[in-house]
Amino acid sequence: MNAQFLKARQTKYVAYAALYIAVTFAVVTVANVLANRYEKTYDTTANKRFSLSDQTIKVVKGLKQDATITYFDQPSHFSSAKDELDLYAAVSPKVHVVYVDPDKQPLVARDAGIKNYGTTVVQIGANKNEAKSTTEEDITGAFIRDLKSTVRTVCFLSGSGEHQLDESGRDGFSRLKDLLGKDDYQTKSINLIEKSDVPGDCTVVVVGGPSRDYLQPEVDGIRKYVEDGGRAMFLLEAPLKLKGLDIADNDALTAMLQSWGVTLDKDLVLDPLGQMAGVGAQLALVVKYEPHPIVNEMKGTATGFPFSRSMETKNGDKTTVEKLFESSQDSIAAINMVKPDPQDPKNKKGPFTIAAAGSYRTGKENSQGRFVVIGSSQWAANSFLPFNGNRDLALNAMNWLSSDEDLISIRPKEPEDRRITMTNAQMSWVRTTSQFLFPLAVVVAGFVVWWRRR
After folding, report:
1. Residues of the domain holding 156
2. On the CB side of 177, how many CA atoms lie within 13 Å of its CA?
3. Is residue 453 part of a domain?
4. Is the pLDDT of residue 42 over 60?
5. 100/158 same-domain check
6. Of the listed ranges 46-60, 152-166, 262-276, 391-405, the one predicted with least confidence
7. What is the DSSP string of 416-440?
8. What is the pLDDT of residue 415?
9. pTM, to two decimals
10. Residues ≥6 apart with Cβ < 8 Å to 290
């Protein structure tokens, strides 16, 4: 009787089912134990929106001492910040995340100066900074401010038709100002016409696309600043003489750069790749970069430079100059600045160097002048700064100039806009297809199956 029971089909099915349940339960239990002990996540979004950026990982992994992220809010809102903050703790064991309810721990909140719910404070050693929100950009910014306790000021020259720091229009530098602020750079405008000496609090000086000639005392002030160990960025685009647009040659300024090993040509780079990108041939599109700390992390990232000019580089007596990137093989350089003509037989054939970085040996210990020259200024203006990797290039160049190479990387990603825009005709087609054609196809298929089996 027992043998027949054991051989019965129902008994086998029950035994198999029990075995499967036991195995499944064991697998789920082991998976939960491993998941609890070893936290691992996978981000399948197109731009890795829910992963930390390279810059954040570099900053967090480079911590030499413990860092504490304290989030002050009501307990019911802790979960809204947990996903983002826990990513930091997962990168390094030196990062600790603490959640504080200001109502239950008022003394802790008061000691931290907390006035609003949802406040995040990052503390590294004795340095403590508040993040404006729980986004990666703001939290990483707080880390950087803790690590960089010294004040870094970027001084933008004005008075000769440069891009204005507070101008919010297409040609302004207001977006660049905001971008630098998030990396804890202070910014201000200076004028060397009245007094040619660069202020001593300037970490970096930016010559942002002057449309008029610099006076010789201004140029001498910049020269003295860099050759004494200062840092400068020169954004000088093609000297076009078009109707409504007259960019000065700035011979005194370009002569100074030539003495350092960077010779700026009076031409306009035209690139077919710019037309392929839907912008126009006046945009020099760059996808390949030379080995240099400014661009080492930008492989696979495109940058664009409108109205760019070419340049030639060589080392000088006291300077070392390195090329950063060049235009495409198919690019040409129009030499007629009054009426650039792509078909002009006098045009030069590419590729052309359009950016370089150099160092000046001052002869003093631990004192080295640095400069970056880019043959375009529009790339950093409000209209083009959001273009692909332009933001990263601007900050990488600034980090290198201010000797903050440890911050050079790709910045936190902005949310990707994946909305679909359709015309009225496309909307009508989608509505007709979804409401009528697909249901009709199902009905017809059902009728065919019924007819065949009738």
Report:
1. 152-407
2. 16
3. no
4. no
5. no
6. 46-60
7. P-------HHHHHHHHHIIIIIHHH
8. 56
9. 0.70
10. 322, 323, 324, 325
